[in-house]
């Protein structure tokens, strides 16, 4: 009798151990358990820890409540300005209602992946190329709203959506590179012209200061010589001031006049014709030297008295 009781107790204990092993469930901290009894949803959602279910009657589904990172495959599309692009993205979502994620959708991960791909193609067709390249924050927000609207019914909330990469055709890349190069060159020319304008103003001010103080020009010349000679050059270029050349030119064109002594006017030459009636002494008399006219009235000369035949 005792042996039979021991055998019965052993059988009951073994059955209890098998029952407990079949009914015991462990739910992790980041999970929640959804129990279906005979296919019907139980009202209570099992939290993390140890829990029991009825073996062969209850079926428990564990739902991960962590944020899931899912890459969206690259999608080919044509933008609103007729440019062919290839865009991929990444989506972050999590389950907020474990029962809805199990009951309302067959596979919520696959459903979120498909709605993300269709929404990405839709957002490509509604956007311009410039928006895809430079205004991604606005596109990310629009893409998040498009995915979040149907996902809310599945007990899933979209935490964040990011566009990762935009692939362009090679011809479009070359065109954009030429455009960027032209824009850079334009900006460089504008900056260079602005620098020349500012430098010309400063040079004009410096020239005004040097014109007031001529020695400043010579000091500037000496500074230039020192700067050139500091490089240990074999050839020294010496600038020559233009003002010095102008000074020498003016000195050559306007020499200082020397004082002149007043000279007497030459006596006009006269032609004498021999007159036989006159005395020969007149012909033999030498011509008087010219003299300065006195302040008084002039007197008649001897040779003038006998020049009746002068022309």
TrEMBL record:
Region listing for Disordered, in residue ranges: 253-311
Compositional bias (Basic and acidic residues): 272-282
InterPro entries: Band-7_stomatin-like, Band_7, Band_7/SPFH_dom_sf, Stomatin_HflK_fam
Gene3D superfamilies, alphabetized: 6.10.250.2090, Band 7 domain (3.30.479.30)
SUPFAM superfamilies named in the record: Band 7/SPFH domain (SSF117892)
Chain ranges passing through the membrane: none
Sequence ranges of Low complexity compositional bias: 283-299
Ranges of residues in domain Band: 22-180
Taxonomy, superkingdom: Bacteria
Pfam families: Band_7
Family statement drawn from the similarity comment of this UniProt entry: Belongs to the band 7/mec-2 family.
Protein name, UniProt field: Slipin family protein
Native organism taxonomy: Bacteria, Bacillati, Actinomycetota, Actinomycetes, Kitasatosporales
